[in-house]
């Protein structure tokens, strides 16, 4: 295994939660713990990205975001990593392709909030993502219904698992996805930044 990369064994089910985490907060923690439980995952990796191609403004320095994430998410089943910066990948599809090559036999599941499913068809090679790994979607405030009606959801409706089948998701061949409902946390990074509680050093 490459130095600085997370450790994973063949046969493990690992959820991948990507984002700028600018900053990480209890909403991320809530989604992560929900995903671990409902999808039957062994681990979750937070992929703290160098930057989000869909956002015009750059995030805080990655070292600061990693430190904040590690302070917020204290669970031995969760790894906070800058693996995208180490890989030099910019888009999710590229990252997934590299991770699947580096970790053969590991069952990866891409995790996202329902707010991301609403705009998923804007992501680079989004259909390629669905063709590589199962996708687990956790309901977020105000977007549950819109997520169900999203373009990606409509196109891939035949590949959708019911909530009752959620624990099967890591074992399904892609395309496969599942939208689960759970008690919601309305915390958001943009709200924290707007409140002035997260001061970037640059």
Count of strand segments: 7
Helix/strand-derived category reads alpha/beta
Mean pLDDT across all amino acids:
90
What is the CA-atom radius of gyration, in angstroms? 16 Å
Cα end-to-end separation: 33 Å
Helix content: 25-40%
**Spans of 5+ residues with little confidence (pLDDT < 50)?**
none
Number of helical segments with 4 or more residues: 9
Largest β-sheet summary: 7 strands, parallel
Summarize the helix and strand pattern as letters: EHEHEHHEHHEHHEEH
- Beta-strand content bin: 15-25%
Outline: globular
Strands of the biggest beta sheet: in what spatial order?
3-2-1-4-5-7-6
List keywords for this structure.
alpha/beta, 7-stranded parallel sheet, 17% strand
Describe this structure in words.
The protein is α/β, with parallel strands linked by helices. Helix content is 34%, strand content 17%. It contains nine helices and seven strands. Strands 3-2-1-4-5-7-6 form a seven-stranded parallel beta sheet. It starts with 12 loop residues before the first strand and ends in a 7-residue tail after the last helix.
Question: What is shown here, in short?
Answer:
This protein has helices spanning 26-38, 62-72, 83-87, 92-102, 114-118, 126-132, 144-148, 151-155, 189-195; strands at 13-19, 43-48, 78-81, 107-113, 135-138, 160-161, 177-180. The protein has 202 residues and is an alpha/beta fold.
């Amino acid at each position: 295994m490459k130095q600085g990369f997370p450790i994973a064994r063949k046969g493990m089910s690992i959820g991948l939660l990507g984002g700028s985490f600018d900053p990480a907060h209890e909403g991320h923690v809530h989604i992560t713990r929900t995903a671990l439980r409902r999808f039957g995952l062994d681990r979750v990796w937070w992929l703290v990205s160098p930057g989000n191609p869909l956002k015009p403004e750059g995030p805080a320095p990655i070292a600061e975001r990693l430190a904040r994430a590690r302070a917020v998410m204290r669970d031995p089943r969760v790894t906070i990593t800058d693996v995208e910066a180490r890989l030099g990948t910019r888009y999710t599809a590229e990252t997934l392709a590299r991770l699947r090559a580096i970790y053969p036999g590991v069952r990866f599941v891409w995790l996202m909030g329902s707010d991301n499913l609403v705009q998923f068809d804007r992501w680079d090679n989004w259909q390629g993502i669905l063709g590589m790994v199962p996708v687990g979607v956790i309901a977020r405030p105000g977007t549950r219904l819109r997520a169900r009606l999203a373009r990606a959801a409509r196109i891939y409706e035949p590949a959708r698992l019911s909530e009752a089948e959620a624990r099967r998701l890591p074992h399904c061949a892609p395309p496969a996805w599942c939208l689960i409902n759970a008690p919601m946390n309305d915390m958001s990074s943009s709200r924290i930044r707007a409140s002035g509680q997260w001061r970037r050093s640059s």
